[in-house]
Every structure is written in structure tokens, then in C-alpha cells.
Amino acid sequence: MSQLPSEPEFEQALSELKTSLGSFLKAHPTYQKALDIVQIPERIIQFRVVWEDDQGQAQVNRGFRVQYNSSLGPYKGGLRLHPSVNLSILKFLGFEQTFKNALTGLNMGGGKGGSDFDPKGKSDAEIRRFCVSFMTQLSKHIGQDVDVPAGDIGVGGREIGYLFGAYRKLRNEFAGILTGKGLHWGGSNIRPEATGYGLIYFIEHMIAKACPEYSLSKPSTLVAISGAGNVSQFTALKVIELGATVVSMSDSKGSLIATTDSGFSKDVIESIGQLKLKGGFLDSFKQFTDEGKYTYHPGQRPWTLLSKVHIALPGATQNEVSAAEAEALVKSGVRIVAEGSNMGCTKEAITIFEASRKNGGAGVWYAPGKASNCGGVAVSGLEMAQNSQRLTWSPEEVDTKLKNIMKDCYNTCLGAGEQWSGEENTGNDVLPSLLAGANVAGFIKVADAMKAQGDWW
């Protein structure tokens, strides 16, 4: 019996990587040592966060930063504020972030952090006091050449501003210490949109190879999206801009499903964005459901609610597509499943998608989040580059760079999948495993850098 604590999310991510590496490690057994080493974080920092609520009472939360791997550059990864935050989740996210960052081609290591603090229902003053207390501890362990955090669930522009202001005062320096900053004080154009836009740029290549009949320029192409936060909003807006039809959005309380052929409109997505900024939920969208254009389904995710869908983009949180929901998606005719969230599909769901792909014909082509949603951290890397040069690139420049990064990431995963998926019949009739491709390509890049620096031999 292992003396290690049970960490189900991390163990799931590690198991996925090990499975994908089987064919590669068989051909290159010396890399097993790199796998043994890379799965252990370089450093884990845990601290107490005491802050004052609006009633003058002291409150306490746990703060964390998992500095996973710095072989390719400073630790880079978001801060998550959510009651579910624990070391297992942050280790899984930091582990995935290490290989995701490698796939961008930028010089960034992997890390993740956050707290079990819940910003929902808190006043601006309470959130500010929490952020100041959190950064008072975190500032001892980060720096623009050491560790550059970003936002994640529960950490948007407001929280980044409070955290950055606290760091600037504590350290008496103005440095590119956080990404996702405001445009007029060091932020990058396209950063809020980057994860959602990058996801669409990635799947455009998947569609062109696997099912060009479902081009995103066609209104007849039906796209199911889960979540209603930053990633899902900008994913939906880009789909609508290109011309396809968004048929679902969701949040932690339920799902909103379009009932007309026109799907979600830009105005409705923007209204959802305003609602979420105020901490609201989709169940309050009476004006839409009363018109008969949408139906609200409490306590349900969208995947079993759709009779027909071509592209599914989980964008909420980890393990949000179960085996039963994967079966429902296959039955509804889905052809592309790509994660906007991190590890959005359970192991069982992935097995179902991968099995349908191996059968040839109209199977499901699945892309893991470490590849398909790397656009957010890619533009964070571009923000770091702009900060280092004390300049700002135009939206067009950043968007062009993002498109090229997502294209290169896709091609890298495609090539590695063709070579190392361990499947005998990856010919024209069977698409290569992007899951295996992303895991192997990311691992090789990190492992080679570690070896060159003497971290394994």
C-alpha cells in the first residue's frame, strides 16, 4: 500500500501520460528515468491566508503554488480561486501546464496555484483584502524570471489588478510579474479572448482534415459548448463570427439549450458575459427562456440534451464529460471533441471517443486540453515578451502570432500522433491520436531540456 496521499486528479493526468508514452518508451527506454523525475514537482509552496471580511471578522483560507518544472523557462500557470482547490487539483493542473507550455514553442515552464477562497458572493473590498493577503505570501516565491502567474477560474481582470498592485507595493517594482493585466498597464491585446479563439483556430485544422463538410463558415454546423466563463464566451463569439451555430452554454447550476435553428446570438453571449461579471447564473435568464428560443435544464450538462451536434467543446472544468455523456455525443453524430477546459473528459469518455476513431469512418476525433486550449498561455507568453521589451503589439499582430502558434501545435501533435500512437493502422482511413501526439511531443521537449541541464542522465 502506497504511503502517498490519494490525489485522484493528479493520478488521472499521470496515468494518461504514461499510457500515451508506451510506444515511445518501448523504443527509447532511457526516457523512463525522465518520466520518473518529471512527475515530481520541483517545489510546492503552501501558506495561510488571513483576511478581513466586511464585518471586521478574520477569515482564513489555504494558499498554494505548485512550481512544477522550470526546464523550459520561468514557471507559468494560472491562479485558481474556488472552494474545490486542493493539492491534487493544482498538481494535476501544474503537471498538464508543463507539457501544454512546451507545445506552444515558447520558453515557459509549468506551474499552478490558488486558494480555496470563493470570490462568489464577496464584495469588491473583501476580494481586494484577500488578494493583498494572498500576494503578501506569494510574492516571496515569484518574479518575472522565476514564476509568472496568470488568471484561472475565479481570477479575472479585477483580481489580477489587486494582486499586481499588492506585488508592486510589496516589492517596490513594476515588473511583468502577472499576465492578464489591463492594456494600459502592461497587458496584451487578445489576452482575454486567447483561450477561446485559440481553441477555434486549433479545431479549424482538425475539421479541415477530418470532416471539411462541417466548416465553421456554415450555419448548418452545430457547435455545443459547456461553461459560461471567459473561455466559453469567447469560444462562442468566435464560432458565431465565423458563421457556425452555437447550440448550448452552461454553468454549475444547469444548461441553456437553443431551440431554434439560429442558435445563440452575439447579443445573448454578451449578455451572459455581463451576467457572469456580476456573479449571476444562467437560471436567471427568464427573458430568453420566456421567448421560447432557449430552454433551461437545471442540474444538467448539455451533452445528453442535444439530439444532433457536430462539434463539442467542453469549456467548464475537469471531468465534465462522463462515459454516458460521451456515448450520448457519439449517438448525436459528433465528429470533433476538443477541450477548452483542462482534462475536461474523464478517462472513460476518452476511451469511448478514441475507440470510435479507431473504427474508421465517421468516428470522433478528440483533442486534449494541453493542445487545444494552449492559446491562453501562449498569449500570456507573448505578454511576457512585450513586457520585457516595454512595448505593445497590435491586436492584429497578436492574433496572427496566436494563429501560427495553434497551427504549429496542431502539426506537432499530428506528427507525433502518427509516429508514436502505437496503432498499427493509422492510414488515411484512421486519424492519428492527437492525445498520444500531444503527450509524447510535450514530454520529449521537456525531457530533452531536463537532460541537457543535468536533471537526469
Strand percentage, roughly?
A: 15-25%
**Based on CA inertia axes, which overall geometry fits?**
globular
The helix tally amounts to 16
| Backbone structural class | alpha/beta
The main sheet comes to: 7 strands, mixed
Query: Between the first and last Cα atoms, what is the distance in angstroms?
Result: 29 Å
Average per-residue pLDDT, rounded, comes to 94
Low-pLDDT windows of residues: none
Would you give an account of this structure?
This protein is of the alpha/beta class and 457 residues long. The protein has helices spanning 8-20, 22-27, 32-38, 87-104, 124-138, 157-171, 194-210, 230-242, 266-277, 286-289, 323-331, 347-358, 369-372, 375-389, 395-420, 434-452, and strands spanning 43-52, 58-69, 75-81, 110-115, 147-151, 222-225, 245-251, 254-258, 294-298, 311-313, 336-338, 365-367. The chain has a seven-stranded mixed beta sheet with strand order 9-8-7-6-10-11-12, with helices on both faces. The protein has a five-stranded mixed beta sheet with strand order 1-2-4-3-5, with helices on both faces. α14 crosses α15 and α15 crosses α16. The chain is globular and about 60 Å long.
